[in-house]
Amino acid sequence: MENNNQYITDHFKRPLKDLRISVTDQCNFRCTYCMPAEIFDKDYPFLTKNELLSFDEIVRLAEIFAGLGTEKIRITGGEPLLRKDLDQLIARLYQIDGIKDIALTTNAVLLTKKAAKLKAAGLNRVNVSLDAIEDEEFGKINGRGTGSQPVLKGIEAAMKAGLQVKVNMVVKKGLNDTQVLPMAKYFKGKDVILRFIEFMDVGNHNGWNMETVMSKKDIIDQIHQEMPLTAVEANYYGEVASRYRYVDGGGEIGVISSVTDSFCSSCTRIRLSAEGKLYTCLFASQGHDIRKIMRDEVSDNQLMMEIISIWSRRKDRYSDERKEGKPLKRKKIEMSYIGG
Ligand code: SAM
Ligand code: SF4
Ligand code: SF4
């Protein structure tokens, strides 16, 4: 299917540009704010093989999205590197006409083994999640007692393989706010952009309240006092991170301020969950069951019409509404199903 570069737009005229694909709901970590071990235990009803979208189904949908103008794909999870033969999926996505960029979000524990193969398959970029540099702190957060070394080794392997690497740190007050400076110091001067993410109220189990959010302003102020920073222009429309550069030439950092400075007006993303539901917002309660439609043997054209209909009805602006103080109590999809 050809990419005509005519984006479809939603109710607020936002174009559909990015597709995020979760390839598994399983993870080798139990980050306390994402998949707390006491809930995601051995009795948790993880998806069965038949419930997961197959590679054929994912590729079919990606082709339809590319035909509607989507150029960027991000693979996520759960932990996407747990999905068997992920490089084969990436190689197939890379072949799709119109797909210009394939990225991966990962905790990087398995990256040392897999980076070169993924790069060869067509992966361009990885975002590695690392919430603390000190082993004890990190071990507590990831719920598995794993220190930062395996992640740092994964980052090194990715860079060596020629992948662009960004590191993402979610900052939750009382959990890892004391790691902001150590992380900034560690990555300063290395060829890696470190981005801080404000802790969000995704899912239903992470004990979020406004007091747990360290704001973009506080993060930047704290770093700036020790290592002066200057603001940098956004790279492109819809870029979610505010960019800053060290004045002394030590590189760049970013902050994703979805809570204190939301960016719904330029949100161009749709999310495909591991079991084939489409979500038009990270905070949605309901997905659109595209797997069911697909398994009912509909044509590509019918699937495309369904996607157009879902996107054109989209009115989501949850983070803007949160900022405006609107009541937002609702049951939400878990982050491990749609991957951030
Ligand atoms: N397992 C992979 C990883 O950790 O990179 C991919 C999936 S994970 C759900 C994607 C990203 O979502 C991670 O960077 C994680 O830190 C972030 N995340 C999870 N819960 C979050 C929350 N409540 N607020 C902000 N970011 C969150
Ligand atoms: Fe796993 Fe990523 Fe969630 Fe941590 S943030 S539990 S690594 S899915
Ligand atoms: Fe996009 Fe929803 Fe996040 Fe707003 S809250 S930026 S609409 S995902």
Largest sheet: 12 strands, mixed
| Helical content class | 25-40%
CATH class value = Alpha Beta
Architecture in CATH? Answer: Alpha-Beta Barrel
Instruction: Write the element-wise H/E pattern from the N-terminal end onward.
Output: EHEHEHEHHEHEHEEEEEEHHHH
Uncertain segments are none
Q: What gap, in angstroms, lies between the N and C termini?
A: 28 Å
Class by alpha and beta content: alpha/beta
Number of helical runs? 11
Lateral arrangement of strands in the main beta sheet: 7-8-9-6-5-4-3-2-1-10-11-12
Summed up, the domain count is 1
User: What radius of gyration results from the CA coordinates?
Assistant: 19 Å
Q: Please tally the β strands and state the result.
A: 12
Strand content: 15-25%
User: So what's the overall shape?
Assistant: globular
Ligand identities: S-adenosylmethionine, iron/sulfur cluster
CATH topology: TIM Barrel
Superfamily (CATH H level) name: Aldolase class I
Average pLDDT, to the nearest integer? 93
